[in-house]
Amino acid sequence: MANKPDNNAYWAANLRLVTICLVIWALCSYGLAILLRPLISGIAVGGTDLGFWFAQQGSILVFLVLIFFYAWRMNKLDKEHGVDEE
After folding, report:
1. In 3D, which of 66, 65, 36, 63 has the Cα closest to residue 52?
2. Which keywords appear in this protein's UniProt record, sorted alphabetically (predicted)?
C-alpha cells in the first residue's frame, strides 16, 4: 500500500491530468466552436465550415478521444503509484 507522501503525489498527478483534459475539452468545445468560430469559418470540412463542424461533431470526437486518453493515462498512473487493480 502506498504511504502518505505517495498518496499526495498520486492525487496531484490525478488533478493535473483532469485539469489538462478539461482545458483541452473547453478549448475545443467552447473556444473553437463559439469564440474562435469567425476565425476558422473559412476552412471547409465535409461541405461546411470548420467552426460549425467543431460545434456539431468535432467537440464530441475530441471528448471521446479524451475519455480513452484519460483511462489509458490513469491506468498507467495507477501502476506507477501501486494502486492498480490488476
Report:
1. 36
2. Membrane, Transmembrane, Transmembrane helix
CB 51 within 8 A of CB 36: yes
* Cβ-contact 21, 66 below 8 angstroms: yes
**Which residues does 69 contact at the CB level (< 8 Å), separation at least 6?**
21
* 20-76 per-position pLDDT tens digit: 999 999 998 888 888 888 888 888 888 888 888 878 888 889 999 999 999 999 999
DSSP string, 14-82: HHHHHHHHHHHHHIIIIIIIIISHHHHTTSEETTEEHHHHIIIIIHHHHHHHHHHHHHHHHHHHHHHTT
Domain regions of the chain by residue span: 4-80
